[in-house]
Design brief:
Layout lengths: L3 E10 L2 E11 L4 E5 L6 H9 L6 E6 L2 E2 L5 H7 L1 E3 L12 H13 L9 H18 L14 H14 L4 E5 L7 H16 L4 E5 L3 H7 L2 E6 L2 E6 L1 H5 L2 H11 L1
Parallel strand pairs: 3-8, 3-9, 6-7, 7-8
Antiparallel strand pairs: 1-2, 1-4, 4-5, 9-10
Helix pairs in contact: 3-4, 3-5, 4-5, 5-6
The chain binds adenosine-5'-triphosphate.
Length: 249
């Protein structure tokens, strides 16, 4: 069954139509990229899927159920987790502590002061698993604020994964990164997608990352869907080249 189905969704801010009648589907295990020039409506589109904004019209289905009016936290419990354009971590805590917080939130233990030993062991095991999958084990006890931008972003992605999502939304995961960091984050996303069959939608400006990772690409321009297809189809699409790719190159 289709995991995410966005149907004719629009979002108006006063006179401005930031997202204009956009439809998109994401199949289980698919990695979908959303690209487009600045101000195209990409982040607004993400905010509609994650529930930070409510659409002006249209509807959003997740796993067959209508989530259009659900609050963000409810969508997380349904299985949608996201990261932000600006990394959201606790810089004064260690990597391990950041992940532990996310795991406790996910398990519903965050409001309890004392945890039974068995539960504690389960949480530790889950944190260890996230550290291993991200390759952050050797930085587990470093303060996140002292880590590289790339490792901070990896920590944030693993915090989102602690919520055990079925769909992960990544808003510009390589923003502001150098070559090596971009490569490392791309490899992490690829691993989560290919090895763990996680469904991912990502907004990304770096075309090398997009064409390396995506199964399908949607191009937004001025709120409208300009094109949609495989990386090969998008690379060969003259409208896209003229409106977007040509400008970037
Ligand atoms: N809360 C808001 N109120 C009013 N206008 C908004 C709001 N959020 C976004 N916009 C406008 O909607 C349009 C789309 O913005 P959005 O941030 O979604 O684009 P984007 O494609 O993510 O851009 P970028 O690549 O620069 O992040 C822009 O013109 C922006 O100014």
């Amino acid at each position: 069954m289709t995991l995410l189905k966005v149907e004719n969704v629009s979002k108006r801010f006063g006179q401005l139509v930031a997202v204009d009648d956009v439809s998109m589907t994401v199949e289980p295990g698919e990695l979908r990229a959303v690209i487009g020039p600045n101000g195209a409506g990409k982040t607004t589109f993400f905010n509609l899927i994650s529930g930070f904004l409510t659409q002006s019209s249209g509807r959003i289905l997740f796993d067959g159920g209508d989530i259009s009016t659900l609050l963000p936290a409810r969508r997380v419990w349904r299985g949608i987790a996201r990261t932000f354009q600006i990394t959201e971590v606790f810089p004064e805590l260690s990597t391990r502590e950041n992940l532990r917080i996310a795991v406790e939130v996910a398990a519903g233990y965050r409001t309890r002061i004392w945890l039974p030993r068995q539960v504690n062991a389960e949480i530790e095991a889950r944190v260890g698993d996230l550290l291993a999958r991200s390759g952050l084990d050797d930085k587990a006890d470093r303060l996140v604020g002292e880590l590289s931008h790339g490792d901070q972003r990896a920590t944030e992605i693993m915090m989102a994964l602690a919520l055990r999502p079925r769909l992960l939304l990544l808003d510009e995961p390589t923003a502001g990164m150098g070559e090596q960091e971009t490569y490392d984050i791309t490899q992490l996303i690829r691993k989560l997608h290919k090895d763990e069959k996680l469904s991912i939608v990502l907004i990304e400006h770096d075309m090398r990352v997009v064409f390396h990772l995506a199964d399908r690409i949607m191009v937004l321009a001025e709120g409208k869907m300009l094109a949609e297809g495989t990386p090969g189809e998008i690379a060969g699409n003259e409208v896209v080249q003229a409106a977007y790719l040509g400008k970037v190159a």
